[in-house]
Amino acid sequence: MRHAIALEYDGRAFCGFQSQPSGCGVQDALERALAAIAGSPVRIAPAGRTDAGVHATSQIVHFDAPVERPLNAWVRGVNAHLPESAAVLWCAPVAIDFHARFAATSRHYTYLLLDRAVRPALLHGRVGWFHVPLDVDAMADAAQMLVGTHDFSSFRAAGCQAKSPVKTLARLDVVREGSFVRFDVSAGAFLHHMVRNIVGALVDVGASRRTRAWLADVLAAADRRRGAATFAPDGLYFAGADYDARFALPSTRRAVTVAF
Which entry of 10, 28, 51, 242 is annotated as an active-site residue? Predict the structure, then answer.
């Protein structure tokens, strides 16, 4: 009785996705809620782990249900036991060989950044912020150098546990969207802090602090000390993962939008 679910959450309410001894992780909250419906402990596995303050519009998770329940019990029933900052969007039965992490063929993140003189209030914690307008064209141009297969050591957190720093970025789009700068990033897998470190470097280019050539040098150096500061988690969203059509899942990706 393996099931897949899609979960949305506001990362400000948690200490990250992964379970912690204090029980403050998204995983802790979801496993408690699933156990309340199942009547016994339930363990989960996510498509990706997010840091404290990072949000999700469509985090894909699988679990093995120890008892049979209607699908709605794994949605509305579980939501009744989750904090208001997290909600299950759908639940679907899957084959026993489905694994939310290992079966994912790609993962998608969006970073939303407000670039204006005044810090956000209504969107505090939900978007990143930079205090001057950014040159989006320069950022978009520089971003294309990072698309493809590279050693991303310069964009890797010191404590990253990935076996290899070589990753393949399939997409890195930077566009102006109303009052915001939007970064859409897709890859098969990511390094720890990789997206936030890329955003930090591109912001330096957009603010004319650095050049496109500098970004090329940073990438080639494969040295985190050569890169920009890690950008704030506030505007980062896990926006979904892709899976083989044979699993017949509902939509596993969900676009990030803001109301202002």
Answer: 51
Q: What is the number of domains present in the chain?
A: 2
- For residues 94 and 249, the answer to whether their CB atoms sit within 8 Å is yes
Does residue 223 carry a catalytic annotation? no
Same domain, 79 and 129: no
Q: What is the pTM of this model?
A: 0.96
Is residue 247 in a domain?
Answer: no
The predicted-structure confidence for 141-196, as pLDDT tens digits, reads as follows 999 999 999 999 999 998 888 999 999 999 999 999 988 999 999 999 999 999 99
Q: Are residues 115 and 41 in the same domain?
A: no
